[in-house]
Every structure is written in C-alpha cells, then in structure tokens.
Write a structure and sequence with these properties.
Structural class: mainly alpha
Number of domains: 2
InterPro entries: MetI-like, MetI-like_sf, Phosphate_PstC, Phosphate_Transport_Permease
Protein name: Phosphate transport system permease protein
CATH class of the largest domain: Mainly Alpha
Low-confidence stretches: none
CATH architecture of the largest domain: Orthogonal Bundle
Number of helices: 11
Strand content: under 5%
Organism: Bifidobacterium choloepi
Radius of gyration: 24 Å
Mean pLDDT: 87
Oligomer: single chain
Shape: flat
Order of helices and strands: HHHHHHHHHHH
Function: Part of the binding-protein-dependent transport system for phosphate; probably responsible for the translocation of the substrate across the membrane.
Membrane topology: Multi-pass membrane protein
Number of strands: 0
Helix content: over 70%
Largest sheet: none
Distance between the termini: 55 Å
C-alpha cells in the first residue's frame, strides 16, 4: 500500500521550486551582464586606435572615443523615454480611474479588453503606423507649435517636414507604453479596500474626493512601479524609433527639428548589419551602458516603492 504524501513534504517541494525559480532569475540576469561584459571586452582592453577608427566610421568623424560616442546616444535615449512617460502618465491614470470607478460595467469590460489588446501589439506595427500615418499627419500641429511657441527653446523652429523628430517618436512611444501603465494601474485601483471607499463616501466625500483620499494613496506605489515598467520599455524600444526618427549625434533639446538625437537601441539596430567584429564590440558596449541605466532605473523605482510601503 502506497504511503500518502504528507503536507510537510509537499510544502518542502513547493519551497524548493520557489527558491529555484527565484535563483534562476538572478542567474539569467548575471548571465546577461557577463555576456555583455565579455563581448564588450575588446572595446575595453583592445587596441584603442582601432577602436577610435571604428567609432569614427560609425559617426562620420564626429566622435573618436567611446564616451564621446555613447554620451549623445544615452542623452537621446533618456530624453525620448522621459518625454514618452510624461505624455503617457496622466492619460494612463485617467483611463485607469475611469475603468475602475466611473465607467459602467459593460463599458469597463470592453475598455479593459482594448487596453490589454493594445499592450500586445508588436512594436514594429507601431513603427509602421508612426512612419506612414502619424509623421505626415502631425506636421501641421508641430508647425503650429513652432510658429506660436517657438520662443520656448525646446519648440524652436522651423518644424521638420517630414516630422521625423524626437517629438513624434515620443508620441508614438507614449502610445506604446500607455496600455502597460493603464493595465497595471487599473488592477491596483480595483484592489482598493471597499471599506475605505465606503467610509469616505459615508463621511460626505464626493466621488472625486473619495478617489483622492482612498484610491490614489492606496495605489501610489503600484502606480510608480507601473510607470517604471513603461519607462523601461521606452528606454529599450528599437524598431519604432528606428523607423521614425531621423538620427543625429547631438546633445539637443530641439524636439521639432530633425537629425538632433538618437537612442542606443535604435543605433545598435542601424549599425549592426555592417559592423565588423570590433564594431560589434563597440555596439555591445553601448548596450551594456543601456543595461546599467535600465537596471538603475528599476532599482530606484524599487527603493521608492519600498519607502511608500513603509509609510
């Protein structure tokens, strides 16, 4: 007769599997970091004159050392991602609140389905739409902005036509990360304790006051985490940026002019097909910088959410 498995044995097995899964994540992260460092090593310890020649060939002589090369790329990456997050953040919060607390159930269910569907669309589709539809369609608006708000340095004109600029790319990336932030934020808002909401309403609060006093404070740390996930996708986005942006190698805040900035991921995709072995090492070195920046952003978000949780 087979001896029945005890609950303690099952608990031990489950704990071992959970530990193994957690350690696997660390192993994968370490393996990625080691791979990037190993492949970028010729850039660090190799012939620096050859490295300078390779970087010069990538930039048309505009840069000859690695940090002069990766600096503008890093600046462009952070600028585009930050603009995308600034555009998407408040819109995503508004959509999430509407779905979770204002919309009728049938409409909320339909909107939730649409949001989840948008999050699953490949980035190349957004890139095609942005390059073929948005770029020509948005030029009149950017031209109006440059005409009437050009006294603000970031909107200085003339607006590029076609609008293959940082501003257009930021709009496309904002649309890409909008469903990610919305989906996570919606689920967090729906988890707000019902008793807290009812208590606020019972004390005479309006619907908005209840949201401000109960829902938003409860979901604050989750909203920050959702925003950082969206920012992480924007930092690493490749195809949409490659298909829309007219690249440059400058430290420029001129959002409406072409050939100003470029991102690390799009630059790797553009340069990789024609790069030699040392050129690939240089590109992987820029990827290592992006990896570190993304890791630091997520680490910072984790620390912020931990502080919010403690409070």
């Amino acid at each position: 007769m087979t001896k029945p498995v005890s609950g303690k044995q099952v608990d031990k097995v489950f704990r071992a599997i959970a530990y193994a899964c957690g350690i696997l994540i660390l192993v994968v992260l370490g393996a990625v970091a080691l791979f990037l460092l190993f492949r970028a090593w010729p850039l660090i310890g190799g012939d620096q004159s050859a490295v300078s020649e390779t970087i010069s060939s990538f930039t048309g002589g505009k840069a000859t050392n690695f940090w002069a090369y990766v600096g503008p790329l890093l600046f462009g990456t952070v600028l585009v991602a930050a603009l995308a997050l600034a555009i998407a953040f408040f819109v995503a919060i508004g959509i999430a609140l509407f779905i979770s607390h204002y919309a009728p159930k049938k409409l909320a269910a339909a909107l939730s389905y649409v949001v989840d569907l948008l999050a699953a669309i490949p980035s190349v589709i957004y890139g095609l739409w942005g390059g073929l539809v948005l770029v020509p369609a948005i030029y009149p608006f950017w031209n109006w902005v440059a005409t009437y708000l050009g006294w603000i340095p970031i909107f200085a004109g003339p607006a590029a036509n076609p609008s293959r600029t940082v501003a257009t790319v930021a709009v496309v990336l904002a649309i890409m990360i909008l469903p990610i932030i919305t989906s996570i934020t919606r689920d967090i808002f729906l988890q707000t304790p019902r008793l807290q909401e009812e208590a606020a309403l019972a004390l005479g609060a309006t619907k908005w006051e209840m949201v401000k006093l109960a829902v938003l404070p409860f979901g604050k740390s989750g909203v920050i985490s959702a925003s950082m996930l969206g920012l992480g996708r924007a930092l690493g986005e490749t195809m949409a940026v490659l298909m829309i942006l007219s690249p440059g190698l400058k430290y420029s805040f001129r959002l409406l002019q072409a050939s100003q900035d470029q991102t690390i991921a799009a630059n790797i995709a553009a340069q990789y097909p024609e790069a030699n072995e040392l050129g690939v090492s240089v590109l992987i070195g820029t990827g290592l910088v992006l990896f570190v920046i993304t890791f630091l952003v997520n680490f910072l978000a984790r620390k912020i959410t931990e502080k919010k949780a403690v409070k």
